[in-house]
Amino acid sequence: MVRTPDSNAEEKKTAGEAAAEMVRDGMVLGLGTGSTVAWTIKRIGEMVEVGMEVLGVPTSYQAQELAIASGIPLTTLDQDPILDLAIDGVDQISADLTAIKGGGAAHAREKVVASSAQWFVIVADSSKYVDFLSHPVPVEVLPFAARLAQIWIEELGGTPTIRQAKMKDGPVITDNGNFVIDADFGVIEDPGLLAAQLSEIPGVVEHGIFENVDELVVVIDGEVKVFSRV
């Protein structure tokens, strides 16, 4: 199937709205960041409008603003540390449900929220579903430690690039006040090992390799498919 911007957009909408059907009355939800899960949040808002009662924990200012605009009542992990369900988007995900996230520079908060949930679901269009991960890994790092982190990433075989902002001069600044290094390792043969190695780098706040995905909702050839971790 030839991919076009329009087909990807339709797949994102379909996958995002399909994932919203997992939400049940009374749930406390983790609300992810990105263009696909935005459709999930909007659909949950429609469900709230007709009487469903839920609470949401957003993973970024973007997700927070969209949730408020959609009429979803919000809470925090301090108030509700155990979530029923977290739904988020992805940059790339493999058949074994290992994911790379962080294109929106929100992966540190996304990982905290996902780890607080009893069930973690990824929504994606077909372009994100691959046999082997090869997307650059976003690494959130303390600005003070950015150069050291780059050296360590190079020693691991990666090519590190500090992500630059598009509407301001200088690096992207995360919601936590840190830099993001995009670390390109080509095809990642052992994501689990790389995740452990990145976590050992001094000054790294969080990396974008997610190994805790429970379920994937993805649209392939116009059909919603659901894959669960075995």
Automatic annotation (TrEMBL):
<feature type="active site" description="Proton acceptor">
    <location>
        <position position="110"/>
    </location>
</feature>
<protein>
    <recommendedName>
        <fullName>Ribose-5-phosphate isomerase A</fullName>
        <ecNumber>5.3.1.6</ecNumber>
    </recommendedName>
</protein>
<dbReference type="InterPro" id="IPR037171">
    <property type="entry name" value="NagB/RpiA_transferase-like"/>
</dbReference>
<comment type="function">
    <text>Catalyzes the reversible conversion of ribose-5-phosphate to ribulose 5-phosphate.</text>
</comment>
<dbReference type="GO" id="GO:0004751">
    <property type="term" value="F:ribose-5-phosphate isomerase activity"/>
</dbReference>
<dbReference type="InterPro" id="IPR020672">
    <property type="entry name" value="Ribose5P_isomerase_typA_subgr"/>
</dbReference>
<comment type="similarity">
    <text>Belongs to the ribose 5-phosphate isomerase family.</text>
</comment>
<feature type="binding site">
    <location>
        <begin position="88"/>
        <end position="91"/>
    </location>
    <ligand>
        <name>substrate</name>
    </ligand>
</feature>
<dbReference type="Pfam" id="PF06026">
    <property type="entry name" value="Rib_5-P_isom_A"/>
</dbReference>
<comment type="subunit">
    <text>Homodimer.</text>
</comment>
<feature type="binding site">
    <location>
        <begin position="101"/>
        <end position="104"/>
    </location>
    <ligand>
        <name>substrate</name>
    </ligand>
</feature>
<keyword id="KW-0413">Isomerase</keyword>
<dbReference type="GO" id="GO:0009052">
    <property type="term" value="P:pentose-phosphate shunt, non-oxidative branch"/>
</dbReference>
<comment type="subunit">
    <text>Homotetramer.</text>
</comment>
<feature type="binding site">
    <location>
        <begin position="33"/>
        <end position="36"/>
    </location>
    <ligand>
        <name>substrate</name>
    </ligand>
</feature>
<feature type="binding site">
    <location>
        <position position="128"/>
    </location>
    <ligand>
        <name>substrate</name>
    </ligand>
</feature>
<dbReference type="GO" id="GO:0006014">
    <property type="term" value="P:D-ribose metabolic process"/>
</dbReference>
<dbReference type="InterPro" id="IPR004788">
    <property type="entry name" value="Ribose5P_isomerase_type_A"/>
</dbReference>
<comment type="pathway">
    <text>Carbohydrate degradation; pentose phosphate pathway; D-ribose 5-phosphate from D-ribulose 5-phosphate (non-oxidative stage): step 1/1.</text>
</comment>
<dbReference type="GO" id="GO:0005829">
    <property type="term" value="C:cytosol"/>
</dbReference>
